[in-house]
Amino acid sequence: MALIPYEPFRHLENVRRELDRFWSNDFSPFDAGFAKGFGHIHTDVYETENEVVATCDIPGLEKKEDVHIEVDRNRLTVSGTVNRVNEVKEEHMHRQERFVGRFHRSISLPADVSSEGVTASYRNGVLEVRMPKLKGDSKKRIDVQFH
Where do the domains of the chain lie? Predict the structure, then answer.
C-alpha cells in the first residue's frame, strides 16, 4: 500500500475555488446594485499546454492607465476605472445602464503561472491576459535523514 502525504490545506483550495465560482455567478438580487455597483466584470479562464489565458469583458476603457493587472502564482487580479464622457446631459438621461466607475476582480487560476512573460492586449472591449505556466512541479519532496 502506497503512503500518501498528508496535506492539511488541500481542502481549503477547493473551498476557495467554490467561493470564487459562487461570487462570479450573476444573482438576480444583486443585479440592481451589488454586482454592478462594484464593477463586476465577466471573465473566461482556460489553459493550454504552456499557458493560462483569461479574457475579461471590460467595455469602455480609453487608455492603458485605466487598467491594472497583477499576477501572483495562481491568482490573477484585474482592476481599474471606466470613465465615460457624458454624451447627454444628466437631466435628459432616462436610463443609464452602462457601467462607469471602478472595477476589481480577483480570480483563482487552474495552474501556477510565472509573472515573467505575461502579456495583455485590449481589443473591442475585451482584455486578454496570457500567462505562461511554471515549468515543472512546484512541489518539492524533502528526503528525511535518519540517524
Answer: 10-85+98-132
CATH topology of domain 10-85+98-132: Immunoglobulin-like (2.60.40)
Share of the chain above pLDDT 70, in %: 76
CA pair distance 7, 21, nearest whole angstrom = 23
- Mind listing the pLDDT tens digit for each residue in 20-36? 767 655 444 444 443 44
pLDDT tens-digit readout, 70-112: 998 889 999 988 887 666 777 777 777 777 788 889 999 999 9
Strands (E), 65-135: 67-72, 75-82, 101-108, 119-123, 126-132
Strand partners, 126: 57, 123
Q: Which triple of cell numbers denotes residue 128?
A: 486578454
Enter the pTM of the model: 0.65
**Is 50 exposed, middle or buried, given 0-12, 13-18 or 19+ CB atoms closer than 10 A?**
exposed
Cell 469583458 belongs to which residue? 57
Query: What length is written for the chain?
Result: 147
- Grid cell 467561493 is found at 19
Beta bridge partners of 72: 75
